[in-house]
Amino acid sequence: MPAAPSIQFFHPSGHVKVRSTLDRLIGSGTESFRGAVCFFTRAGFLLLRRHATVLNRPDSFFVASVDYPTNLEALKELHGIAPGHTYIHLGGATPEEIRVSRALMHSKILLAANSEQQRLWVGSHNFTGQAIEGGNIEAGIELTGDRNSQPIRDASAHLEVCRATAELFDPAQMERYKQIQNERLPLPSWIRPDRLLILHAEARNQPSSAPFTCHLQIVPTDFDKYFLNDRGVRLYLHSAGTLRRGIPASFANVTLWSGSITGVVRTHRHPRNSGVQGQFQNADYEIELPDVFNAPVFDVKGTGIPATSQIVLRMDARREPGREVYSIDKVPVTNVYDADAVGQDLHEVDDDMRELFTPESFDGQRMLYRPVRGMKQQLKVEGYEETMRTMSPALPSGTKELFSPEIMYVAKEAKRPADAFLFVSKHVIDREQQPES
């Protein structure tokens, strides 16, 4: 019967430098050392590099997660001193907790074996400087026992699962690893959050140059929240009779003007915020939106519709259609994972937790783990079918023909037909600033 294992807790004071403790444990692995630690930085390499002999024993291996803040260059260095024994875990495409993260290998477990005993470390410590040098408040347990003791056998089985679901580190795959890790980084500079007023109108007369002012008269109150002083404006002027519900607009002969809102007036006809009708006789052009069914009309002189709101636009410059694309989606970039199609059935999820995960995280009532093999980014432009592309067939000189990530257009169903011609963006994709693929 194996002797009862001994257990030591690290550490009552919380802030403790554990490098010497980990050195002793790893160095004791004269037969093998196996480890799986979620986050691995340069500090982890500095810890392990003095144990290259142990790491290169036939049964030794070390697994780290691809997820940030793992330092992929440090992991590459570890591979350099222990090739064939260094693994990277790419996590799972599912399960994915909504607005939190997808599944990852989160273990922090070390197991060193020699002819006399096995030493097991389980704790909160990642292989980072803060954890190893005691900057963080961390906790761990070291258990020393016979290889046949149940905790040692279970820990050994756990480590084999970590390795089996990871892949052998390959320096030639660094770009793929970086792409998967970078999913959580900020948006590229050429995709910016920006709430611009996007206005598509049929023009009976075209301006020849900027600046010019427009008197926008609106009858429906549905769009009131769009009109804020100083909000940026993009005004697309189309030929008369070309903007129709359900038909994508042609941008071949469209002019685009940029400017801002300089004034908002509620008239005496407004049902909630009754004011005074303004006389904007000095405006260069009129834009009228009499209902929620038709596109706005741009002309030198309006017909005098019974407006509830009057908005003054100052247009300062002419732009080339095709350089900007607008999305009304809050998440313009999505990550599409190349994952095992079948996956691994895990277990049933608690009913009160189910709503926290994406639908793809389940097979029936059971969680589904699908390991990641690669990833590509998709740029999602969400808008209205009629106007979401905002680009001409022949793009301006110097404009990129394709975005760096794959682009996907998602048509949103309009609540009102006029939504396609008057809306506020959430993100602007700037093709002029976009780098080469």
What is the CATH first-level class name of one domain? Alpha Beta
Largest sheet features: 8 strands, mixed
Structural class, from secondary structure content?
Answer: mainly beta
Shape: elongated
CATH architecture of one domain: 2-Layer Sandwich
Helix content: 10-25%
* Number of separate strands: 27
Low-confidence parts: 399-404
Assign the CATH topology of one domain. Answer: Endonuclease, Chain A
How would you describe this protein?
This protein has seven helices and 27 strands. It is mainly β and 437 residues long. The protein starts with 5 loop residues before the first strand and ends in a 7-residue tail after the last strand. The protein has a domain of 176 residues: 2-Layer Sandwich (Endonuclease, Chain A), CATH 3.30.870.10. β17 and β18 form a beta hairpin.
SSE blueprint and pairings:
Layout: E1 6-10, H1 19-27, E2 32-37, H2 42-48, H3 52-55, E3 61-65, H4 72-81, E4 86-89, E5 92-94, E6 96-97, E7 101-102, E8 108-113, E9 118-123, H5 129-133, E10 140-145, H6 150-164, E11 167-168, H7 174-181, E12 191-193, E13 197-203, E14 212-218, E15 232-239, E16 255-266, E17 285-289, E18 297-299, E19 309-319, E20 324-327, E21 333-339, E22 344-348, E23 362-363, E24 366-383, E25 406-411, E26 422-424, E27 427-430
Parallel strand pairs: 2-3, 3-4, 13-15, 13-18, 14-17, 24-25
Antiparallel strand pairs: 1-10, 2-8, 4-11, 5-24, 6-7, 8-9, 9-10, 12-27, 13-26, 14-19, 15-16, 16-19, 17-18, 20-27, 21-24, 22-24, 23-24
Helix pairs in contact: 2-4
